[in-house]
Amino acid sequence: MRGFALATIICVLIAPSIAQPQEVPRVLKGHNLPVIAVCMPSGSDTLMSADLYGFVENWTQETHETQFGTGWVCDAAAFSPDGQCLAIACNSTSEVRLWDTRRQIRDDFAKPLHVIQIQEMSACLAFSADGKLLVVGGADGGISIWETATGINVSRTHVSDGPLLAVAINTESKLVATGGISGKVTLIPTHQGRQRKLVAGSEESMISALAFSPDGKTLAVSATHQRDESNCIFTFWNPSTANKIRQVTPKNPFIYLSSITFSPDGKKVAAAGVIKTVSQPSPNTFVHRDLGEVQVYSVTSGEVESNLIQRHPDPFTSILFSRDGHTLVAGCGDCNVYIWRIVKPK
After folding, report:
1. What is the pLDDT of residue 299?
2. Contact (CB, 8 A) for 100 and 110
């Protein structure tokens, strides 16, 4: 069964003692393809991660066992904050499939809870804070909002002439932010209201990552220039006024950010992305490499507080703070999950 190209979810028991000092992350090995989504359910001591395979594995600190498989390749994946629902976008069939992770039993190919038919390929997914809504950003520049309990479409809105690459929904489920290759972020009320746009980059920029702060008063935006790879702009915005608050100063300039997340108290923000390095092994030879990094910033100052990992051979695709803000988890393209202790035990 494992020879098939599928999407894997891993459940890992997190005890306070497993996270080592931030210079030496704990590495969880078990996936066979890049990890593209992580989740630490509130009120739980588990960690969940999803890659491009389709098996669910329950982990303790010593052992793990396969629980179920989705049977579908992930073009995009997201967990609900409580970990009870997994959404996988399957562009080959123009579907988004939802799984109830609580109801699955030991099975190679579990049946989805709902199958959502979408008009175009989907590029990004985001759950509301209560897990009741799923926002799907499409390659056609439109977003659709769905009820996770019923699979019913709530609304569909066209926001861009080009593909959307990032989507986020605020804690109160009242505002959706989307961005794509247009270089603009569109703010869309989930109910009645006027769309607003903020320009986070130039006309040649693309929006690669978005995140709302827990109180909804700050929106973190990453804009990458499509030609000048040294020009990745990371900014904080006020979503109520569409005004820029400040620009973040990376320790090592990113060329692309794949994931942004706020700490539960809203005081820190972590960013996972790619930097470009150039080496010269010989006088006439230059070697360009794209390397992964994870950095943590102060929301108040925009300055780097810590550079958790530098010049990693593979990019980091998804990051998340634990519910107490003491631990940061990142999924990586090397098929592993990394765990850092941000706040050291007293």
Report:
1. 93
2. no
